[in-house]
UniProtKB/TrEMBL annotation:
Primary subcellular site in the record, as a coarse category: membrane
Domain ABC transmembrane type-1: 93-447
Source species: Nonomuraea typhae
Organismal lineage: Bacteria, Bacillati, Actinomycetota, Actinomycetes, Streptosporangiales
Positions of transmembrane segments: 37-59, 97-117, 129-150, 320-349, 370-388, 427-448
Protein known as: ABC transporter permease subunit
């Protein structure tokens, strides 16, 4: 009776085998939570979608890359061999190498610079908002924006508008590439050394008339005013004008009321082969030399007046197209890098920074020896992520680069699309897709490993 109330008794260590067999096993493990079958049931839909959208396309692309354009003849690795033997494809690989080296480095450095600077300014929130704003714009829209920015005409393209404004600030000369002096024995000037000069020496008090012809209507600046009719008192002066009246009613060699002066031209007074003074024509084409010594001078228009005016850089040409597109890429992604690095800066213990400053370290030493090492994991993640993005870049190159220079700006992703859907060579297109996957895969694995390491 006592034994039943107290429950089954565990036999001592030396009990019989039958007694030990009847004793409950304390070492038996019990599983917590639902059965693994339920977990597999929930994972199955995601696994099916992953197989349909990722695994199957990769496997089929590998299979398709081993066949010709029509998909009927097995060619083995010939498509992959063509990647490294075709000159156009090699240019594409070279461009991708430039992208991988330059773009991620610029994005990471600018993101670090912006993140550090925003910690020291009051309006850091507004600054971060402005820098991050391009992330709200799609790459295709960014391509359209920069296609307009890089327009050759300064009246349309912002980049050349800025360059020409800066250039004209320090060089006020106006170019008239088609202008030439009026010919004839009665003309007081003649072409000389690529420019224009007076036939006879002139002296102060007598105006110098320099009639010019051959100027196209679009070349004449809007600031041109009616040419000055009378001489300026004192000094050596004159007028340079467009000697043409619509309808042919004007008098050759004389200033007519409807004729315009040529502003912005550089005029030189030359004595004994040396430039004694320089002047610039006004809106009405008039010029004047003050303070000249008495004597005779040759009035000359140097060759610089007859060169085309500075119109900026050809951003969409063969030489600059790749750097121009990389700049657009940096504009889009610099805000992303800044946000990630700013989060890393916020996690740095301030005690280490303050201790270094107390010990006498300069700000540069604190930044180089403490901030950068502590930020290295974040910087590496940003850098690797940008490498992956540069390897996959497509939209910006397709939109910004004109058709005439796309072969020089081509990248692997764009070449894959052009070959597969433009030339309808699915075999070569699949080979380029697998080649791009092989390039991206190591960096993706590196990122995944870093994420797992951070979780542990």
């Amino acid at each position: 009776m006592t034994e039943r109330l107290n429950g089954p008794q565990v036999p001592p260590e030396g009990g019989t085998a039958s007694q030990r067999a009847d004793t409950p096993q304390k070492s038996k493990k019990y599983r917590l939570g639902p059965s693994p079958i339920i977990a597999y049931f929930f994972v199955l839909p995601a696994a099916l979608l992953l197989g349909i959208w990722a695994v199957y396309p990769i496997l089929y692309s590998i299979f398709r890359s081993l066949f010709d354009a029509a998909g009927t003849t097995f060619v083995g690795v010939d498509n992959f061999t063509a990647i490294f033997t075709d000159r156009g494809t090699l240019v594409t690989v070279r461009n991708n190498l430039i992208w991988v080296v330059v773009a991620p480095l610029l994005v990471t450095v600018l993101g670090l610079l912006f993140a550090v600077l925003t910690e020291r300014i009051r309006w850091s929130t507004a600054f971060k908002l402005i820098v991050f704003m391009p992330m709200a714009v799609s790459l295709m829209a960014a391509g359209v924006i920069f296609r307009l920015v890089y327009e050759q005409d300064p009246d349309k393209g912002l980049a050349n508008a800025v360059l020409t404004t800066v250039h004209d600030t320090f060089s006020a000369s106006q170019g008239y590439p088609d202008a030439r002096p009026r010919e004839g024995d009665a003309s007081p000037v003649q072409a000389k050394d690529g420019g224009v000069a007076t036939k006879q020496p002139v002296q102060a008090g007598r105006p110098v008339l320099i009639p010019m012809v051959g100027i196209k209507a679009g070349t004449l600046p809007t600031s041109a005013a009616p040419a000055a009719a009378g001489p300026q008192p004192g000094g050596l002066s004159g007028v340079i004008w467009f000697d043409f009246t619509p309808g042919g009613q004007g008098t050759s060699g004389a200033v007519d009321p409807q004729e315009k002066g040529l502003p912005g031209m550089t005029v030189e007074a030359v004595s004994n082969g040396k430039v004694a003074a320089t002047a610039t024509t006004e809106a009405d084409g008039s010029f004047r030399f003050d303070g000249l010594a008495a004597g005779s001078y040759e009035v000359r228009l140097p060759q610089s007046n007859f060169t085309a005016p500075y119109r900026g850089l050809n951003w969409l040409g063969e030489a600059l197209i790749t750097p121009a597109i990389i700049f657009a890429f940096v504009w889009v992604w610099a805000g992303f890098a800044m946000v990630l690095i700013s989060a890393g800066l916020a996690a740095i213990p301030r005690d280490a920074l303050e201790a270094a400053r107390i010990d006498g370290a300069t700000e540069w030493q604190v930044f180089r020896r403490i901030t950068i090492p502590l930020l290295s994991p974040v910087l590496l993640v940003v850098f690797v992520t940008m490498i992956i993005n540069t390897l996959k870049v497509f939209d910006l190159v397709f939109i910004i680069a004109p058709a005439s220079v796309q072969p020089q700006a081509n990248v692997i992703a764009l070449e894959m699309w052009r070959v597969a859907f433009g030339a309808n060579n699915q075999g070569m297109g699949s080979a380029l897709a697998i080649f791009l996957l092989v390039l991206v895969l190591p960096f993706m694995i590196m990122n995944v490993r870093r994420f797992r390491r951070g979780e542990n």
